[in-house]
Task: structure prediction
Amino acid sequence: MARKQRYQVKLYKKVRDIISYSSSSNGKVPHKSESEKKIKKSGETKKQPENEQNEYWDLVDETPPISSDDSDTCWNIFTKIGVILFSITLFFIVLVSTGLTRIIIHLMIWKLNPPQANSTTTIDKMGGLLRLVEERTYLKYNCTQNSNNTDCASSFLQREDFPTTWECVPVSRHLCQLLEETPSVNVMWIWGLVIVMVVPDIYTIILSLWRLCFKETQKCDFKRLILSLVVETLHTTGLCLLVFLVLPAFDPITASILSCLIIFFPVVFSLFCDLKFSGMDIKTMTQKVANSSCIEKTESTERKKDIDIEKKLQESKNDSDIKKNCPRIKNSSSSEKGKDSKESKNESDIEKDVPEKEKDSKESRNEPDIEKDVQESRNVSGNEKEKELPVSKNEDDTKFYDVVFNITQKVGFVFFLISLGFAGWYIYKNSGEENFALIFCLLIISLVLVSITYWENFLMFSSTITLEKDTNQLKSIKSRLKTFLMEYIRSKRELVSLFTALWKVVLSISFPYIIFSIMSTDDSTAYDTAKAISLFGTSKVKTLTGKVILESRSYFPYGCGRHDLDALIIICVVLGFVGFKSARFACRVNLQYVCFSSPLVLSWLGTPLLIIPVMKHPLFWTTQDCNIVQPLWELRGTFIKDIWQLIVSGCFGFVACILLTLYVWTNNGSKLVKCDRLFRKPPYCGIFLNTSLLLTRCKDTTEQRGEEKSEEAEKSTGSIDSEKYYRPFVYFCATMWHETETEMTQLLKSIFKVDYEQFIQKEHEKTLKAKKKSYINEDVYQFEVHIFFDDAFKPRMNKTGTKQLKGIEVNDYVKTLESVIPKTAKSIYGGFELDEVKRYETPYGARFEWELLTSQKLVVHLKDKTKIRNRKRWSQVMYLFYLLSFKMNETKENEKEKLENSGGDLEEIMKSFTNNTFILALDGDVDFKPEAVSLLLDRMKKNPLVGAACGRIHPIGSGPMVWYQTFEYAVSHWLQKATEHVFGCVLCSPGCFSLFRGSALLANNVMKTYTKVPTEAAHHVQYDQGEDRWLCTLLLKQKYRVEYCAASDALTFAPEGFYEFYNQRRRWAPSTMANILDLLLDGNNVRKTNQNISRPYIFYHICLFISSILTPGTIFLLILGAIITAFPQIEPWLALLLNGVPVAIFIISIYVAKEETQLLFAAILSTLYSLVMLVVLIGLLKEGVEAQFCSVTTVFFCFVAGVFVIAAILHPKEFTCILHGLLYFLAVPSMSMLLIFYSVGNLHNVNWGTRESKTAKKDDSSTQKIKKRVLGQSCSFGDWCRCILCFNEIEDVGPGVSEEERKLEEKRRPKEIKKRGIFRKCNPIQEDEQDFWRKFIKKYLKPLKINDEEKSKMQAELIELRNKVFFFYFITNAIFVTIVYVLTQVNAYQKTLSIPLPCSVGETQGVIEPISIAFTLVFGTLLLIQFFGMLTHRVSTISHIVAATKIINKELDRKIPIKKFEKPIADAVKEEKKKTKNVNITKSSKWNTLSTVSTAVKILSGKHVMKHQSIIDLRNSIQMNFKLDTIKESTEEAGILKRYPEKPVPTMSIRNSPPPLDTKSPESSNQ
Result:
């Protein structure tokens, strides 16, 4: 009875707990005592696991290891110093290049019309300040040496340090005149300016051709082509008029001031337009126009006119779109009293005309009813004053900034007119009434025509739509025109740009002929002028200030020689191009303030100021052969009153330009955004470099181009609404099998570091968000960790291991992982521990869950191979469907509930979610840093078409094989992956560390195809031997791009043994060739669907494919040549035999010997061949010393070595990899010949080959389920022999019960599932998830059951495939070796196939063998292409590093709070008393005193008490630190917050962040 009562008491308590738990889950939190609240407040919300509870006798403690990142810290410091120096250098490059280019161009223009002494106008003499130096106009003869009375010879001319090349015209016996009555102009100055003008067009042509060849482009649109041709024709016309006719009439200072006024169209558009639509799509434009139109209508004072407008809006086509986005109309103003009754009547009539169906459709779509809002707003009594809706402070600030910006644009327009007016005054004053009209009109026309090309960046529509009484046809024409212009601005138009650039080149070359022919005088015809411009003859032409003679002599008075002119033009072109690329580069790396806006504005201002000393001291800039200035004229006048109009015009014009380009100061650039999205077309203007860069810089860079959005819609990648921010969600998905504890620890450390880093970033975001709600930390992302463990279970055995029990248990590898996770977390979190693991039973096995610091989950999925398919690819299929299908459906249901009240487009939201969901594929031994993931995310954010991105993989381990792989990985990443990234797409994103986009994986023919079961022999090779490469192949076929990010580093353990390495490459090599061959064979379709794959890129891979096939034969010939070189007495045929016999024996062993024997033989041959390669190296060095560079082999060897050395220098962090190059060279025969034969010869072996455990190879008969019990006596001799005596089998049935009775009893009784083994501690998962796993496993992952017949058939097909492929490899290389060997021998005896070189080695003539040179050229060309690809990719990587490096911003406090020990209360009081007495004791002395005492001694002395502290305590401690830190105001943070708008931006996430643990009660957490 007592036992029964105790049971009832327990049952009652259990029911009470369940009731209390259910009530708390329904929102009714049970009452807690004060002690419970104190426990919760102190952070003890979780019970310590029983196996980890500290006993009183457990005194010793283990201090968590402190990870040393000294090398990384050092590199970070060097990186920041490098970025600072780089920024300073870039600033001066942009400043000097743009400023110096502008100065040279204005001086070149001045050369077209030198000042004339007999001219009455002073416009070319800076208002009279530029004066002729009389003493320089004539030179004297020293005739004392001449006894005759004839004229003195030119050798007697006293030049007074003037260049001897200056020609002088004798005017008397003692004088020689330098000044010409009609100045001569070298036509090379004209052609120099033409070259400067056409260089940007040539750049556009090359860029367009590159994109047409390597990228997918749109077809040429005729309307866009016509518009582009018209605009660029007008621009080129104005530019040529300005350069060849107008600006030569002025001095360089005046010309540089007037050139700032080429802003007519930009300043007019910015004045009369408020709403910019160039960065929006049609839908966004319609929404904003609708909103603005509704607001304008409500603010109108004519109520009747508003009703007419609404009536017309109902009849228009876009009525529904406008009404859908129209905000609630405000109340009418109080000035409209007495009109309510009449207006309400009119409104009621309008409402009656609205169809009922339209009202129903509005209600079903939750669209706002405009008419109803109008009626409600106008029913207010006329006697009441209008009440404005409350406006937030952020909205007030935004309106204030808008008003200020509009005022600045109006002020800029006024200043522009004032500047133009004062310029006209100055021209009128110094040119006279005769020439004023012509000069000023030509100036205005040319300035207007030049500025028309910048209309794209400043064309905006008014925020008010005025609907007058025009026809619907006229409105539709306006709408179509606006749509066409918007699409034109946002289009790439590569073909249009190509044709336009070609047309501009033709115009730029033709206009000098046209302009100067028109300006010909009576003495010269237009034909003579054309001949003179063509460098034949001379011609006299008129200018706006006089006449000049066009000629092309080598030297003329104070001019330049032809070669000096060419050098000057090249310098000007190079400086302009460098300035253009550097300025645009600064905007891509967040250096716009320092390296773009500042230097361009300074060069704008400094050019006139720097020309002043040049014109004041012209002889200082005079060289022996060239003088770019006018040496006979000096700037001597200092009267400001003569040019005050010019100074005023320059000041007002400069301020107008600054006000117009204020947008370049609104942000510091964009991170890794394409230049096409940062700048409008054309790229730049060679004559006005800094002005064109400032005016083509886009005002808004947040929006994507039209093509990108349309493509994105087609690919279901979705676009991110500019008014919302979608937080990226990254699933860390790792696969494990037989990893060691060290390898597991390496992965887990990386995960916990990311967890801690993200928690710090989130808290920092909260801190700044409290100050400015719109702040968003782009480094923050949500994440979950999922580890999928293959073959995780084993049968349960008794304690002695002799008997198998019912149920299963996890194997030793899982036990290791379960113990490593809390240990690693404790070491990374500084002693704070994870909470107890939660276990769940799943249809595929089991699942373990831990909660991380960020409240995210670390989930370990344990796979039972009897329930679900094994191997890595099926694990990837498992998490792809679970995370991207099942979890996304949960998100969809949540969003549906939200949209029922708020409204919205579910399809667009889900597209954006999938576009911002990423899968980080990891191996079980990879090591990476938190910033590595952020860098990969940057690549994804840069381009929505990027489906996958991989980082730089570094192999780690010890031993020669790891050293070899270190150099191999470095070369493959430096050259091969970089080249693939630049010229096309990376073909393989390694599965050990790669980021995949969710929307790309969900595309058609990707995930679905990835689940295919191999049905053919080739499928086994392509699908299962290299699953990461096959997945990338599927992405490439579906228009997605795969990129390589060299700044993102990851480390992984590489095979340390020769056998394991060969087995790994045995899988990789055939899979690589199979996938590349698949892409090449389907090249036409891939090229059509993927815009990043082109014909040249396919041809490049065809060459690589052929060279890789012939690599074994090439190495064979290399060894053959080494033997002949080292041992000349050996005949070539004998050397061929000596080299061929070992290779033949190895090939035979592949067919007849076991795999272990093959590997043994390969290891022996590799050792021997390494010695042969030493002979080759010595021979190369000997030949290089003797022949120097008269040997093709020496040149090629130096070229290859130079490429590797330069690549290592360009990768300073990886420079030590070059040290392993010698080992790589010695292993070339083994890795490039024997390994290929071994891989192809074992093509039929589809086993994994690596991480094979010894226990896995044993027979499973000892671990099979035992269904019968065996009784009797047994004896054994170890594992060699076992004897069983008295053998007896007893069926496992109950005593006295027959088999039939037992079955009937089982049917009568309800089945009771008794959990055994590991599942005794597991809880069930949710029913919907269980249903998902059951159906998913049944359809895709059900274990394959293959009978012996099918296995034999598949094995036979694999062997047949092996034979075919191996025969192809062998016969191809055999033919290649035979041809080369025979031709080499023929040439050795007859010398008929050699080409002599113009050099000799001693007495021997250097020769070139066509066979060897052809082969060398093929390999050398491929290596050269890879070298240029590496250089281009390094620029991209440097820009990524510079953009991601934060120098000025305050570093976050990432120091982990170390675990503390709670002190007893009594001792704490004593401690406080001691503190009051010993106030002068410093903290450092106390720390030094306490540090000498161990933890155990402190506990024994009663100073401390051991206390379990979980990550909740760590979370609370960090949050407290951030709360204390918010008191201090940081200037850096204030600068950051200024960049964000005042209006808060809603943040969208796939799932809401889970509530923090410290808000839960202990009871609920335990439940």
User: Anything to note?
Assistant: The longest strand covers residues 1041-1053. The chain has a mean pLDDT of 76. The CA atoms of residues 71 and 857 lie 31 Å apart.
